[in-house]
Q: What sequence folds into this?
């Protein structure tokens, strides 16, 4: 079954979008509109708010799937990078010395110089290793070195590495690869334009445990959530407090994806104006509705991510149906 054939005519009916409000001393100051969808690993839309066919670029939520070639090619095993290496390959990290060191270890194991990384050097930094995508790029280069592919053009959409990633993602979605629109992400690597339900389907696969490569990557992310994002960042704090039950990976411009481990269910969120604070608020609202986190855990996360100051508070109106 392909994803598109599972939608039917009801995917747009009776599912109002969510609204996130920022309250200043209880008075509404800003509003954000968000779409959300829950899919199972067969591509069936189980619940939705707004439009599950909303198109957007998946951005950094694609990283676990970009890392599958690193695992499937045997590169990760040859380098003996362990779960820490797999986690940094999936990361949108904070650029701390600890994060840069893990990315460097991938390069060291493949005998590649840091200067070969083609992700940008962040403002105020001195090395591309400090870029939040350096782990992904290091895994790209290590894979190219093992397979004898060019390490100079590794970010080009027509490069064998990027073509293999696209093929694998398309297979998970049950689509021909040529139907997936490709564009350049801010780090220079290709990203994909997908329907929101397609993103949820990818994350249903990620958490299902049915495919060995994805299972290894999801296990690594849960084992080392500090490497996936960083202290105080949403993905890290949610996975750390979720007791190994919830995978979380965000992307720029209001993308947030989640998965319930072992249940083959994925969630995808898109905030129309790209707000990070709004996607985090929506994610926590949905985690409560789906009963994926304990009340105590939700309260801790809400205090951290939905109350930025004593006089400010985020609230979410609406629910999945």
A:
């Amino acid at each position: 079954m392909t994803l598109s054939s599972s939608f039917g005519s009801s995917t747009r009916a009776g599912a109002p979008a969510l609204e996130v409000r920022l309250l200043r001393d209880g008075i509404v100051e800003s509003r954000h509109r968000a779409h959300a969808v829950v899919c199972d690993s067969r591509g069936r839309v189980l619940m939705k708010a707004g439009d599950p066919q909303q198109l957007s670029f998946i951005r950094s939520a694609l990283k676990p799937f970009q890392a599958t070639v690193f695992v499937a090619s045997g590169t990760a095993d040859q380098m003996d990078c362990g779960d820490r290496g797999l986690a940094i390959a999936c990361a949108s990290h904070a650029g701390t010395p600890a994060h840069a060191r893990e990315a460097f270890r991938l390069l060291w194991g493949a005998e590649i110089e840091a200067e070969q990384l083609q992700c940008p050097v962040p403002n105020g930094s001195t090395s591309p290793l400090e870029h939040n995508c350096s782990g992904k790029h290091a895994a790209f280069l290590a894979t190219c070195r093992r397979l004898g592919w060019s390490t100079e053009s590794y970010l080009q959409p027509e490069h064998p590495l990027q073509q293999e990633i696209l093929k694998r993602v398309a297979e998970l979605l049950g689509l021909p690869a040529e139907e997936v629109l490709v564009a350049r992400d801010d780090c220079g690597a290709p990203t994909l334009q997908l329907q929101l339900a397609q993103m949820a389907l990818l994350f249903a696969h990620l958490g299902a445990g049915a495919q060995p490569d994805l299972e290894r990557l999801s296990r690594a992310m849960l084992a080392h959530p500090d490497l996936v994002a960083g202290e105080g960042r949403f993905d890290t704090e949610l996975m750390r407090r979720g007791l190994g039950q919830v995978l979380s990976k965000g992307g720029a411009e209001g993308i947030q994806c989640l998965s319930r481990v072992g249940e083959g269910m994925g969630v995808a969120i898109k905030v129309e104006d790209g707000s990070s604070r709004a996607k985090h608020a929506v994610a926590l609202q949905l985690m409560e509705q789906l009963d994926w986190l304990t009340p105590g855990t939700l309260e801790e996360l809400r205090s951290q991510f939905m109350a930025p100051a004593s006089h400010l508070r985020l609230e979410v109106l609406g629910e999945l149906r």
In short: The mean pLDDT is 95. Strands lie at 18-24, 27-40, 45-49, 55-57, 181-184, 190-195, 246-251, 255-260, 265-271, 312-317.
